Amino acid sequence: MDELPNFSHLLREEVQRYIKDHENDDEKVLVLKHKKILGLPAAEIAQQIVGRRKAKTKLPLYYHTKNIVYPPKLNLEQCSSEKTAQFKAQLKSGELAADLTGGFGIDSYFLSKSFKKVIYVEPDETLSQMVKHNHHVLDVINIEHQSTTAESFLNNKSHFDLLYIDPSRRSNANRKVFKFSDCTPNVVSLLPSLIEKSNSILIKASPLIDIKQGLSELSSVAKVIIVGFDNECKEVLFLIAPTKKETVIEVVDLSEHGIESFSFTLSEENQSTPSFDEPHTLLYEPTAMMLKAGAFKLMASRFNLKKVAPNTHLYTADKLVSHFPGRIFKIESFLKSDSKSVLEVLPEGQANIISRNYPLTPSQLKKKLKLKDGGEQFVIAFSGKAKKYLVLASRVK
Fold it and tell me: Which of 85, 149, 223, 315 fits as disulfide partner to 284, beta carbons 3.0 to 4.6 Å?
């Protein structure tokens, strides 16, 4: 396979060995200390060290594969993680798919496991060739690489089983944007072409997107999927497909114990009437993905829990509902909001602090109560329907 001159030198055996041996080095110190390493600009070597280190947790397959070449840091930050890319590749399968915003090629790689052929589309020629090399190293033979824009590519006459698009969420001034119409490419203006070319379109959005705003910009959204793990929302996906049914919102937690999911519609949430009560023995805190989804009332009825207040997204019960999507705490005692009282029950002055719909933030509470982070105990501050609470709790789940 022919390598482009702009990165073929990085594949020399001694260069690859150096990158591997120095993966934990501070790249800034390395660049300051050396102008060149093994005859190559130190900045180039530093970029590979940063990439390899980032891949260790985000892209373990790439990390453990020899001769992978890494792009600039921004491309790595914007690409999907291995976990989320694997999940997306399981949503659809078929003959032909296209990744219209190829980037570092992670999604294209995993889509190639579900489709007979995948077309990777990326206007940056250098990045496209780098990704082509990596896919070759990973023994993928069913990805076609095209260096062009999504808009130009959509002029071809093919029909696809899936079109995937992850638009850039940065403006020309390098500011973050969140509306689909402000992204590059402009998904809203492209939508008629996308729908003409495929019955299934998967659009990746920022975890910070306003879901209702996204739904107002797009048509024919069959499902919104909020994907995350380790209590962190990673991606919000909009699946566009012909349907007469109401849009389903699905929360997917890619936990180490397997995929856990929760589905609902906005009308179900709107029609739900939760019961409220003061805190019982157990407190239930939803995951970040559940909070993003906004099923605040529905969670109470689905899991037969009481909500502690209309605008406090904590739930309570005396019984354990182990399949609840979030953390569960047992209340050990109710505290007074002064440091003397709190330090009597926490003599080591250490606890994990949570604040929900409470006048003080966790850092403000920590300062007021003279506590430091850590330990097994939790101090949870929240507003109930009638009054504010400060409780000492231990984690049940």
Answer: 315
